[in-house]
């Protein structure tokens, strides 16, 4: 892993919103319904209980109008004391087991035994190696454009990618496929999509919602200039969550205007959006279990330390989400250097566009590109890979959703929920920081160890989520 010094004052952070260290102020009243938008009817989901499916034992029964008085046990009797002791021990063991299971399955992560209605495709190996992964010296953030050489952001066409030696991966957009580095580690996953028939309605509703939110934001002049034109392209964006950037003393919720938050209310309270968020997070857990556990434990610790932080989705481990709301959301080549260099960012595409003609997802370091149809998802190391999309046709619309966690959050937690400056001010702080950062290359090797090989996935899932039941 190639390294430089700790990346502070990065101009690539300039497009990040300010954060505030207090809870989000609730809206004084619910926002008005969006004009011309009707939420799709919620379809039954496998595993969801309903009153009609209750077991007979759970239904009300007729009570005896004259029940016998309850038996009163003698507390002084030795047999009763022994039973109470055994009962207390059993309750304590059950509580500890529930707490362990709650931690293992926090944010809705699936157990290894969860059913999957798809067949994984054979892995695809690339010439890239994790030893070439670029990162700052402590491996908490990637390298920004100012610290990289030969970086010229641009929008690539399909033919230009082919001419530059990129391989096109032919993928159906449904069944998962893992991409490996030269040593066999999983560095990207084409997550696909569920085969459930209602998933098409879920994706259609999200696309319609994003289109309506953009139109409403434009009509009411809610979007600022940096919400419409930025380093990733020329399209409108909506985002929320909590983060931590350069100069921040601690993590905080992203700060927005009241009108902007009204748009966000429609977005993050939508059932279909939540389902997509859960699918992205569960895909992360399935193919990167050790890294997921690192995210989970870090985020749980941060939120226990700061309960005012706004966690967007209870079924997702991620702390922030961005929605590219178009009308033509295809990104220029970029690298999300404020994320962990070995962190995973899921991407889902929406909208009426021909995925064979445009909207391809490309990853420059892996020298590959692929079709990412509407409703399909992929997960990549966005803090280490230069990536983007090919243009779509002029009469088409495309939207996308990504989730992520800022690398500074992990640094904040590792330093004992304080900044590097605060840690260095403590007695022995410099020594403690050096121990956390590790020797040159040590944290980089540790970070690579959080990724799995395909043959290790079963054991890694079992270690994180427990054995099959």
UniProtKB/TrEMBL annotation:
Q: Where is the composition biased (Basic residues)?
A: 80-97
Q: Which spans does this entry mark as compositional bias, Polar residues?
A: 114-124
Q: Bias regions of kind Acidic residues — which residues?
A: 1-18
Q: Where is this region: Disordered?
A: 1-124
Name the UniProt record assigns to this protein: Uncharacterized protein
Task: Tell me the organism.
Answer: Favolaschia claudopus
Q: What is the lineage of its organism?
A: Eukaryota, Fungi, Dikarya, Basidiomycota, Agaricomycotina
């Amino acid at each position: 892993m190639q390294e430089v010094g700790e990346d502070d004052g990065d101009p690539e952070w300039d497009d990040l919103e300010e954060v505030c260290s207090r809870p989000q102020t609730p809206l004084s009243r619910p926002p008005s319904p969006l004009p011309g938008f009707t939420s799709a009817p919620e379809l039954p989901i496998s595993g969801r209980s309903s009153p009609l499916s209750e077991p007979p034992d759970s239904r009300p029964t007729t009570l005896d109008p004259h029940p016998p008085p309850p038996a009163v046990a003698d507390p002084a009797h030795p047999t009763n004391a022994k039973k109470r002791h055994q009962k207390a021990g059993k309750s304590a063991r059950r509580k500890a087991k529930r707490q362990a299971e709650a931690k293992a399955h926090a944010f809705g992560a699936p157990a290894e035994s969860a059913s999957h209605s798809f067949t994984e495709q054979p892995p695809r190996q690339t010439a890239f190696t994790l030893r070439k992964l670029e990162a700052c010296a402590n491996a908490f953030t990637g390298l920004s454009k100012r610290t990289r050489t030969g970086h010229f952001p641009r929008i690539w066409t399909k033919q230009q990618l082919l001419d530059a030696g990129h391989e096109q991966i032919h993928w159906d957009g449904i069944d998962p496929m893992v991409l490996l580095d030269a040593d066999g580690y999983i560095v990207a996953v084409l997550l696909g999509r569920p085969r459930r028939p209602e998933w098409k309605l879920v994706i259609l509703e999200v696309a319609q919602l994003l289109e309506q939110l953009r139109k409403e934001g434009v009509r009411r002049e809610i979007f600022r200039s940096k919400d419409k034109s930025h380093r990733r392209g020329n399209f409108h964006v909506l985002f929320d969550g909590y983060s931590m950037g350069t100069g921040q003393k601690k993590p905080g919720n992203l700060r927005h205007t009241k009108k902007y938050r009204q748009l966000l209310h429609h977005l993050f309270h939508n059932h279909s959006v939540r389902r997509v968020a859960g699918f992205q997070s569960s895909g992360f857990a399935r193919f990167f279990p050790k890294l997921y556990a690192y995210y989970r434990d870090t985020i749980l610790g941060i939120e226990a330390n700061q309960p005012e932080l706004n966690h967007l989705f209870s079924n997702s481990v991620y702390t922030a989400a961005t929605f590219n709301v178009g009308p033509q959301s295809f990104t220029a080549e970029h690298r999300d250097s404020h994320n962990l260099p070995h962190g995973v960012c899921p991407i889902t595409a929406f909208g009426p566009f021909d995925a064979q003609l445009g909207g391809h997802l490309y990853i420059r370091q892996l020298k590959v590109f692929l079709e990412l149809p509407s409703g399909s998802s992929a997960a990549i190391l966005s803090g280490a890979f230069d990536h983007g999309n090919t243009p779509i046709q002029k009469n088409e619309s495309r939207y996308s959703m990504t989730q992520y966690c800022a690398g500074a959050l992990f640094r904040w937690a590792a330093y004992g929920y304080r900044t590097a400056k605060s840690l260095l001010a403590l007695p022995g702080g410099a020594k403690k920081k050096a121990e956390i950062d590790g020797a040159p290359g040590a944290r980089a090797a540790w970070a690579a160890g959080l990724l799995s090989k395909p043959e290790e996935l079963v054991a890694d899932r079992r270690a994180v989520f427990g054995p099959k039941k």
